[in-house]
Amino acid sequence: MPEHAPSRVEQRKARTRAALIRAAQAFIAEGKTAVPILEITQAADVGMGTFYNHFETKEQLYQAAVENALDTFGALLDELTTGLDDPAQVFAQGFRLTGRLHRRHPELSKVLLHFGLELATSENGLAPRARRDIEAAVRAGRFTVGDTELAMVTVAGAVLGLAQLLHHQPERDDAAATDRVTEDLLHMLGLTAAEAHEICSRPLPDLDTTATGPDSVA
Amino acid sequence: MPEHAPSRVEQRKARTRAALIRAAQAFIAEGKTAVPILEITQAADVGMGTFYNHFETKEQLYQAAVENALDTFGALLDELTTGLDDPAQVFAQGFRLTGRLHRRHPELSKVLLHFGLELATSENGLAPRARRDIEAAVRAGRFTVGDTELAMVTVAGAVLGLAQLLHHQPERDDAAATDRVTEDLLHMLGLTAAEAHEICSRPLPDLDTTATGPDSVA
DNA sequence: CACATTGATGACGACATCGTCAGTTACGAG
DNA sequence: CTCGTAACTGACGATGTCGTCATCAATGTG
Predict the structure, then answer these.
(1) A single Pfam family, by name (chains A, B) (predicted)?
(2) Which residue in chain B has the smallest CA separation from A197?
(3) Residues of B in contact with A165 (CB under 8 A)
(4) Residue A122, pLDDT score
(5) Where are the alpha helices (DSSP H) in chain A?
(6) Domain check: are B6 and B97 in the same one?
(7) Count: domains in chain A
(8) Would the pLDDT of A42 be above 70?
(9) Does residue A61 sit within a domain?
(10) Taking Cα atoms as reference points, which of B127, B140, B152 lies closest to residue B77?
(11) Which pTM was predicted?
């Protein structure tokens, strides 16, 4: 039983699991959650019975797929916002980048949209990060918020509403729409309209680096 | 073919249809949309084959159920906001009453929550009313909104986020939470914080009048 | 009072999905 | 090289859901 040796067998298992998750994410992205398990395994190019080596039920697979996708994206966001001084800008940049996500990585966006508000109250994913950022900005005196949790309600709703809008209106400029909504939210959170506008006009780091699928296997 | 005579036969048909819709709403309220048709008909106390006299598919029934519920509530909102001078107050009162809805009529609230953002972009239901109210307030110079459609994104998201929150935290004061969110939104839409607070402190008409289920049959 | 029309009924055949399991393949240890 | 273990495989029986249809009940008509 090699403790530090992710040897062949384990690697194969991880690869298979990742293939299943990837396939599930693809189906979720198409809005088809009622897909037979057989179809999922075929899409993942594994045998039918293999599914049950990794998950008990379809829902379990979906849950794993969503958690994987959001954790990956959340980590990316954290990476891209390190080093910023202004907590308000950290929040704004996270929101703006999430808005950009919808066009750059529609599959992740659809996952977000499909599971919707479940994710807003979840302990994993983007919600806890947003809450953390808002609270930091409040402590720093940048935001004026009566109740952080209630502000989160609107912020989370706005994320999903924006995803929905961009999905239904492909012709709309996603960056402009996202920045506009971010601006509104910053104003709501206590910044002046002018300051909100200024922050949303600052340049953004690029999303196109890594990480869209399941965690690399080794 | 009696034009003005909803005679016995038609009344019976309408009653049966209403029973199906009511049963569907109950199941939706429990989050169970994958219920066998047989169960729905049993809950409605009608025969299995009867279902197909009224709807082609389960989705059709659900669609009818949702439209019915939201139109009923929307009409009620309109009724309760007639006679108000300030368009900003019309919007605020609509939002605040919708917030109250979640505790008073959980079944309607759950319907809202379950279908989520689909309803935000729908042509029927609450979204068009909210848009109408916002546009009226903008024309009257009460709101300052860069893009009405994008403001709608956040407002719709906030409605659903609030529903989710109140559903997961039954101990929370629904009126206080709703008014706080409304206040935030009014501030976002261009009112001063003080004015937003004042508007959300005004008394509200009572929701407890009619209309929670499908339209009365005659 | 007999007949026609419309809606309601529930049993039935067709179909799809599920989870299992007995057998196969790949890896690694002795 | 051989054997044991762990993962993979796909066919099969069991289960459950669907939509139809022949029949029944209720209402309205001549």
Answers:
(1) TetR_C_40
(2) B146
(3) 121, 149-150, 153
(4) 82
(5) 8-29, 37-43, 51-54, 58-81, 87-104, 106-115, 127-139, 148-168, 174-188, 193-201
(6) no
(7) 2
(8) yes
(9) no
(10) B127
(11) 0.87
